[in-house]
């Protein structure tokens, strides 16, 4: 056991990489983006670097700017199951929507992933922000933010009961007596709520971790409340250490108010590192990527975050601040504030704002030497801004390799990051307890 | 290319094996039933035996007789994705319900499975017969048989459009011009039906097979119509070659009436073989398994198939034929007729009927030498009863190994079965065409 507090590192895999023009760069291989071997190789490298976990975003709708970028979405649970087949230790976190899945189906998909990966599954719980998703599910309109979170809470309460519906020792498999399962340890969940009515039990025995690790990424007021109550890890976007510290303190306090141990909520800000042997070289690399940006793509992204169509404005003119509807943000709520803060702080032209956001869609982009990146990580980690990082390589796989080969050894040398896995499950890596079943019967005194 | 018509062989994997008491037999390893390595090893052996495919059944509800047998259900799409990671050629068929999935979600799960397996996915289309499933999805009652099939047809029409919504060459990935996808080749499906309203397109490029192979297993009137119209392979249960021949001729005729090529509907009856070096040894093996039957379990199975509670009857008394409601079968419709035929033909006691059904839940159980099993397969194959078989080992993995080692070489020697894979996809193995997208634009003359 390490005595020193350890960083949690997650690899966030985005087809092509996180820079919005990454797929166009000669370092990228856009022909491999649907090839499972590409992702399996990447996962093996992340496992060699003893990363805690890797992660895929998701949403049940096609991005309307697919013309310009590799924004298709393979389904992450299946994708991670194929990755589980060629890895042994690394955690596997899939995004899935509480608005557009049926709880019983999703409970089965994750329970199976946790079984087949021997306890490495995590669920990034999202309510889906893209309104067009509704049209793929027969809804006349996308449920409002508050409504989605209300359904999300009921969904999590219900799916937790389903994952707990078999006590850990319900399977007897006693060949001699013929008792396969002790049905007194398998429970109906009998859930009756506003959104769901589910009897249960699940038809899969309890999985190695009991439940997958609950991950969350919303930073709106609803999102923070939800995260503080349920999330065991939070992916979050901050441009400055001050913003991250405020978020960190707020979430830990809220979690404690829910009676939770603050260490059981890992705060993982995103970082997208451009790494060079000098800072100037790193900046040149970032500029190479920025030169490949297609403004038509970027403007649709901005429109999504801010609810403003900027296509008729001069790219090199000032951002039209009067259009920011600060009271009625209709885009992705948590990103609205972040982008508005950048505009207030930096007063950029539209083109400058586009470049500012191209690397990580609002996440922190840092160009520097390996030492500078490691210093920044250490600074945030040791000053109440982060329990670790959601590492978002600008391009793949090279953008991850340079982090693994140049930055990870520095973090290890400083005693901040493991050089081997001590446990076998994602809960082990994150230092999270394995939850007991809600239905577990208290230990009886022996007769 | 083989000149001679070749058998299609599918391995039907049932946790523990197909004999209902298999998990109790010393040859079984009930502790491995949730261990993915057990299934991955089995898949590798099936691939060494050049089987066309392997298959998992499924249903979104826990069997009420789990006390007596290993009747949990891991989710098969995820399970097969993990198996895809360690195999290269064998087809991977997952069952999923048109009654209890959302089409957009299921389209994504299968498209991902087809991508990550490089074209090896198959979908066993079921409407779910177990009525209790409704209670896991907020429905006050399970939709009736005809209603389920109506929804199933609309589901298949819709999901086909989703899988076709990207033309094969829609992804350009042209780094120089910045064109990632040609949006003129990505289509809204704009489906508006009685059960679903889905705009599309799918958010995943078209998969290697275009669509997974469509498999079906219903044998009721609705099931046959559905199969003749959509299925490319049919799993079916017959106790006699006569019954199988009638079914075979009926389906091929119906398929032709739908304008389909009869060779593009593979008829695969189930066979559960007990194999011994003499017929007597094979029968002793079967008796060993039958001796482990728990009648309380078997009676719930019979109740499910016939809609009759026999628990108060003498097991060694005659089957109470007057209780058979031949006009209003409420159980699994296609199995009702099969079991009623056995009762009419053999006039068994209840215990004899239980033993008769224990091996394969109505599928054909055959005890014999490897030669006898191979003879039976050849007889059905060459006399209009089968295009191949759904092989259902009584126990696993040994029950499969003996078939692979003893029967497969005989089939090869007789020129009936491949000794290596000629293609790479499940469609290749089954000899099925790769469907063109419904939205494909006709080839234009070059300018």
From TrEMBL, chains A, B:
Gene Ontology molecular functions: monooxygenase activity; oxidoreductase activity, acting on paired donors, with incorporation or reduction of molecular oxygen
Keyword Oxidoreductase assigned: yes
Keyword Transmembrane: no
Species of provenance: Beijerinckia indica subsp. indica (strain ATCC 9039 / DSM 1715 / NCIMB 8712)
Family, as annotated: Belongs to the NtaA/SnaA/DszA monooxygenase family.
Domain called Luciferase-like: residue spans: 34-385
SUPFAM superfamilies with a match to the protein in the record: Bacterial luciferase-like (SSF51679)
Descriptive protein name: Nitrilotriacetate monooxygenase component A (NtA monooxygenase component A) (NtA-MO A)
Alphabetically ordered keywords of this record: Flavoprotein, FMN, Monooxygenase, Oxidoreductase
InterPro entries attached to this UniProt entry: Diverse_substr_monoxygenases (IPR051260), Luciferase-like_dom (IPR011251), Luciferase-like_sf (IPR036661), NTA_MOA (IPR016215)
CDD domains for this protein: Nitrilotriacetate_monoxgenase
Binding-site positions, FMN: 58, 95, 145, 149, 219-220
